[in-house]
Amino acid sequence: MEPVTQACPLDQELNPGPFSPQADALTTEHTGRMEVFQALQRLHMTIFSQCFSPCGKFLAAGNNYGQIAIFSLSAALSSEAKEESKKPIVTFQAHDGPVYSMVSTDRHLFSAGDGEVKAWLWAEILKKGCKELWCRQPPYRTSLEVPEINALLLVPKENSLILAGGDCQLHTMDLETGTFTRALRGHTDYIHCLALRDRNPEVLSGGEDGTVRLWDLRMAKEVQTIEVYKHEECSRPHNGRWIGCLATDSDWMVCGGGPALTLWHLRSSTPTTIFPMWAPQKHVTFYQDLILSAGQGPCVNQWQLSGELKAQVPGSSPGLLSLSLNQQPAAPECKVLTAAGNSCRVDVFTNLGYRAFSLSF
Amino acid sequence: MSSESSKKRKPKVIRSDGAPAEGKRNRSDPEQEGKYYSEEAEVDLRDPGRDYELYKYTCQELQRLMAEIQDLKSRGGKDAAVEIEDRRILSCVHFMTLKKLNRLAHIRLKKGRDQTHEAKQKVDAYHLQLQNLLYEVMHLQKEITKCLEFKSKHEEIDLVSVEEFYQEAPPDISKAEITMGDPHQQTLARLDWELEQRKRLAEQYRESLSNKEKILKEIEVKKEYLSSLQPRLNSIMQASLPVQEYLFMPFDQAHKQYETARHLPPPLYVLFVQAKALFKPHEESQDDESDSDAEEEQTTKRRRPTLGVQLDDKRKEMLKRHPLSVMLDLKCKDDSVLHLTFYYLMNLNIMTVKARVTTATELITPISAGDLLSPDSVLSCLYPGDHGKKTPNPANQYQFDKVGILTLRDYVLDLGHPYLWVQKLGGLHFPKEQPQPTVIADHSLSSSHMETTMKLLKTRVQSRLALHKQFASLEHGIVPVTSDCHYLFPAKVVSRLVKWVTIAHEDYVELHFTKDIVEAGLAGDTNLYYMALVERGTAKLQAAVVLNPGYSSIPPIFQLCLNWKGEKTNSNDDNIRAMESEVNVCYKELCGPRPGHQLLTNQLQRLCVLLDVYLETEIHDDSVEGPKEFPQEKMCLRLFRGPSRMKPFKYNHPQGFFSHR
């Protein structure tokens, strides 16, 4: 005898109430799913930006999901550090898109990513449910797609913040009034990085179009252009011509990316030293008498000014996107170098010779 | 002294000699009536004291004479010899006196002895008499005591008490006047009465016995009648079956089931009851049966057990199943059926399940889909981590140690899988790591898990069947995208899937581009692994896929390796990493319509689209001769964005262009 078949109500979604005994069985299944999902998220996380707090004891890191995590450096560096100390104290969703860049003043943290810049108070940031102080969007020309902001730069002398990114312009925002004062045009492709030249108030920018341009802030126009890819010594056509990283020391500038990492003399616009690194570099900075660079590949490279590779210290990520040196005078015990990139981990170097440990999202 | 002994004998001899010695006179007249010399008679006449004096005097005389003789002899002289002779004769006479005295003494002694002897004999006789009399006295005393102790049998009988006796007994027996005074008569009367009563009661007893016999016979008859009734009722029920069927009331069938179900061990019974309760109101899509497997019980051969065989037998004994099992058939929407058979292992107190999937139409199994519906793995990890290879009851470990079983894994093919959800459905709860003394089946535990588990089982079967169908298509190089998922992808996709194969877990772990997944613990041995190959022109993209048994609520995980102008993986190319992220992390938009079975195929299609974008947006190296291998056909707003210079992998639906996330 064939039983009568009807549509079983069970075939639809089962939504048990909060106190239903079914909830137990479902939660086990749910947790299993959540665990896998979280593991996948962490595997595919990229940390784009880092920033130290003004007191020097905390590190903020921004990732590609738009989250910012605050780590306590003093806890992680202390002698009783446990595994939990290497986890963030607080993580919050800052932006809808990736957080490409962060800078910090005495009291504020600025983060920028998908077209907006937000400000956070350091004093409030450790509390749960922290909200941004303000959120601004520079005036963009195109409306089809919101351009990203790749670089933030603080100009302390005129108390302003410079943003640069996807719309190929440098926008200046006055920090007191919050208005956008200048928009410097000149790049033909989006801007990757910014650097400030202290003596004359000039800003350098490097972009996807392969040029490094100098801008005079007072006159608000382009002063000098260096087309890096046109110089044979440093150009590497198979990598492209994009300039990914810039650092300047008033008379000198080091830049890298598609072309090789090169040290330039600014006044004469000539490349003086080529650093023989075939992997494109994504971040470069001057430190004491060394140049530190990082990019594709897990190592932090230390170069002498003469062009010799002094050391290559491996980190834990397969590729690095940012380096940060904690030189805050208030916390000399937290004087570390941190490196982050294509993973959910931030490597902490207490001594430039080796990686001490890693903080992790 | 010989003289004494001779003196002893001498009385006889002396008598006979004495007679002649001084009896010359006597011999001469032996016929003299009674007048002959008897020394015995003389003894009585003489006084012993005087004899003693005489003896002393004689001895003195002898001594004197001897002394005189001595004197004379020493003096010498002629007359001495005559003197000596006189004295010698005197001394001889003295000697003879001494001899006589001696004789008399002996006779006296003898007489004395005889008298003593007689007296002694008399005393002995009296003594003997006395003993005899004493003995007799003792004997008599014993007899008296015996008589006094004698208990008559009548005292052993429990008689009714005196008062009762007087009350109950009829006067002709009790005879109060006589018996009151005389205890003997009273006892006799009581005994009489006792006897009467007993006779009466014995009569009653015999009557009752016969009654009882009669009644027993009646009962027998009635029983026979009833037993003949049973087959008649059965035949009536059989006859009513067609009526039941006609009216759609399978009363009989259900009743039979419940009958058999009563023999089920507790956990199986809980399962049976709960399953019936769950599906009763809906009245469909499930068939419940309890099955008897009597043949399992028989052992096939008898052999002399060696040690190994003994161990084997012990193991078999420990793993023995209860002969009854519960079969549950879950029918899904598309007419495929999941057959579950639940067993109960008696000694281990756990339940196991064997699963089988049958479909409405015959399935041709593609090569890569071998494991999807295999009974061994189709129900693996229904709940996360529940792989069913280890016994859930921690107490079993001690039992296993005794018979040398390492793990239940070796026996699961035979016995079924002891999943945790099976134990919960049977109401058995094993708290972790603490062997409980007894775990009893609990209905509330079973009912709280039944609904969810059944739903999960259905989902599992349906997703596996969907995958089965999809694999058949994938093996032919076609990614089967259903019409309601077309909006996720651009119209033109040039990259093609050329290969889809299963790979083993060990092979997956060995691949150089899967290290991250393995380290993150997402590649266990309960997952299924596949390798897909997507090609376009000279570019070959390998994708290693981890398929979790919990598909499709847990997404498959892809790891990519592109071979085009060098080998690019997520460790050396940020865009490969972004492609993986598009497929692994952003999977929710690829799930498709509700049950989400389209996830894998959509992911594969997206992979093809991503490869297209990647290849077409690669900047042309000016230093190399020749045109671009892949001209850009996709509409993109911008080619690169962000510090890591991401390609535009996100497809925007109605507009049809690619942008960045």
TrEMBL record, chain A:
Pfam families: WD40. The keyword Repeat applies. Keywords: Apoptosis, Developmental protein, mRNA processing, mRNA splicing, mRNA transport, Nucleus, Phosphoprotein, Repeat, RNA-binding, Transport, WD repeat. It is found in: Nucleus speckle. Gene3D superfamilies: YVTN repeat-like/Quinoprotein amine dehydrogenase. It comes from the Eukaryota. SMART domains: WD40. Belongs to the WD repeat THOC6 family. Component of the THO subcomplex of the TREX complex which is thought to couple mRNA transcription, processing and nuclear export, and which specifically associates with spliced mRNA and not with unspliced pre-mRNA. Plays a key structural role in the oligomerization of the THO-DDX39B complex. Component of the THO subcomplex, which is composed of THOC1, THOC2, THOC3, THOC5, THOC6 and THOC7. The THO subcomplex interacts with DDX39B to form the THO-DDX39B complex which multimerizes into a 28-subunit tetrameric assembly. Component of the transcription/export (TREX) complex at least composed of ALYREF/THOC4, DDX39B, SARNP/CIP29, CHTOP and the THO subcomplex; in the complex interacts with THOC5; together with THOC5 and THOC7, plays a key structural role in the oligomerization of the THO-DDX39B complex. TREX seems to have a dynamic structure involving ATP-dependent remodeling. This is WD repeat-containing protein 58. It comes from Myotis myotis (Greater mouse-eared bat).
TrEMBL record, chain B:
The keyword Nucleus applies. The keyword Transport does not apply. Its main location: nucleus. It holds the Pfam family FmiP_Thoc5. One of its GO terms (molecular function) is mRNA binding. InterPro entries: THO_Thoc5. GO terms for cellular component: THO complex part of transcription export complex. It is found in: Nucleus. Residues 285-297 have a biased composition (Acidic residues). Belongs to the THOC5 family. This is THO complex 5. It comes from Myotis myotis. The lineage of its organism: Eukaryota, Metazoa, Chordata, Craniata, Vertebrata.
